Amino acid sequence: MIPVQRPPLQPQLAADLARRTEAIRHAGPNTANGRAAWRGAREPKARIRQLLNRMAPGLARCMYCGDNLGTDIDHFEPIARAPLRTFDWHNHLLACAYCNSNRKRDRFPCDAAGSPLLIDPAREDPADHLRLLLASGAYTPLTPKGEATIDVFGLNSRPELVRARRLAFTVVRALLAEWQTRNAAGDTPAAAEIAAALRDLWQADVLRAVRRLADNPPLAQAVLGDRAWEALRHMGNH
Ligand SMILES: [Zn+2]
Questions:
Q1: Which residues pair with 116 in a beta bridge?
Q2: What is the C-alpha to C-alpha distance for residues 180 and 40, in angstroms, rounded to an integer?
Q3: N or C: the chain end with fewer CB closer than 10 Å?
Q4: How many A from CA of 85 to the centre of ligand 1?
Q5: What angle do CA 102, 207, 72 make, to 5 degrees?
Q6: Which residues are CB-neighbours of 14 under 8 A, at least 6 positions away?
Q7: Ligand 1 centroid to residue 104 C-alpha, Å
Q8: What pTM value is reported for the model?
């Protein structure tokens, strides 16, 4: 999971969503009315989807698992709990069908004070709550929110996710080393192609964890090897 940047809505779409929220309030702010209104909102949903696709990591990947194609507009706070947030743009995230329908559903764990225990990647940096262990591909929770997020989305219990992250680390390291070779040889187009591939890699959380290694140069050099570490230093924040 990586942070995502939510753009502001165009005024026309924002007004349309506000109007639909008022309609739910008027009809009675309950789950059935929220769900019915959502089902019937084809046009705004298509526009929300476009915005979420652009916000999502890699090529429109799920904002929770980062692995599957994002197919569903997820209501971070479920309609069953907050029907008046059905059309709240700040409550919409892109999820894969598995994360949305098989894992999260209407689950929305909160702490004793009522604050959500799931990470909202558009509001906070997941790295404050989760640490990705590159060698194993597993996540370690740093906070109760990290722990609940791992549990709800099965980030460590879905073996294919853990294995994909581990494999992605091998791929990232190899691509960085190759970038370094091409860049040192002055082959700018090839280096740019590799950098573009890295940016759109499925497991964006792995690349981000690798980038964060730069905070600890001796560790980065040991984990990545000389060429990949050189590449990371040269690429900086590109
Ligand atoms: Zn997912």
A1: 110
A2: 52
A3: C
A4: 22
A5: 25
A6: 89
A7: 10
A8: 0.92
